[in-house]
TrEMBL record:
The keyword Metal-binding applies. Belongs to the HMG-CoA lyase family. It is an enzyme of class 4 (lyase). GO terms for biological process: ketone body biosynthetic process; L-leucine catabolic process. This is hydroxymethylglutaryl-CoA lyase. InterPro entries: Aldolase_TIM (IPR013785), HMG_CoA_lyase_AS (IPR000138), HMGL (IPR043594), PYR_CT (IPR000891). One of its GO terms (molecular function) is hydroxymethylglutaryl-CoA lyase activity. Pathway: Metabolic intermediate metabolism; (S)-3-hydroxy-3-methylglutaryl-CoA degradation; acetoacetate from (S)-3-hydroxy-3-methylglutaryl-CoA: step 1/1.
Amino acid sequence: MTGSFTPDLPPLCAPDPEPMPSFPLAPVGLPGISPAVHLVEVGPRDGLQNEAVSVSVTERVALIESLADAGLTEIEAGAFVSPTWVPQMANTDRVLAALAPRPGVRTPVLVPNKKGLDAALDAANLTDIAVFAAASETFSRRNINCSIDDSLTRLAEVAREARARGLRVRGYVSCVLGCPYEGAVPAGAVVRVAEALWAMGCAEISLGDTIGVGTPGQAVALVETVAASLPREALAAHFHDTYGQALANLLAVLERGVRTVDSSVAGLGGCPYATGASGNVATEDVVYMLEGLGVATGVDLDALCRAGETIGAVLGRPLPSRVGRARAGRRA
């Protein structure tokens, strides 16, 4: 047959002449979920630290400011770590100094040891620090070159001095649902580290699925186990999305009373010591889900999506947030 034949039929996906409706539609809540959830934005630290492209101080400051403009009130600003090992976090002191203080907005920084704390204490605008320990012995030795017990001893000194200086201290537990070296991590190992961080004065304990392997039942079981030893309201969920389970895991633990969620704008991030681990759950996706549940976050979703698009342009690649991509298409 030669030539072509074009039937007089409408295209399968004819463009809609009407503007798309606003989403999500009418919120519908679920039992057990708090009417207000606090979001901790970790993109400028946990997100950018695993990017191949180093983002300038000016661009990092602009990202943090845009996230605050969108309504986020706790935004990790960086980390006082060795620039040899994590070059993306170099000049965190300059980032802090360039930020305009805002009432009600906290900009914590990660501090791994006493040397990091000393550097942080010399920085301007410091109000909060975060410390971290792993629930996996192998991960601890590969990540920070010391045992879990040694890391907790070091962190106790850091937390003690930081609190004496009037700083709020937040604690992270890594590898709570799996380790890239050991596989499954016993819940008892997570509880031991969480209890130690709580005992040294951490105001909140963030449970991190560092390599994103957990599923909802596992996430709920872990939260229930840790909540038997620590106040449930002091727990935060920090889920990476390697296996696409992060939102499902979050919903499951929110139904069990967790009120604080860590997330990363546009889904930035990963783990520099866990090959193949993808980014944190995207803040845009979390906000969209929470709005659909009638949960107050105080975040302007469109402004948040614009912040994600901007950092994506800086990095020169599309980023994983499903909501960010959908909103970009709607505005195009």
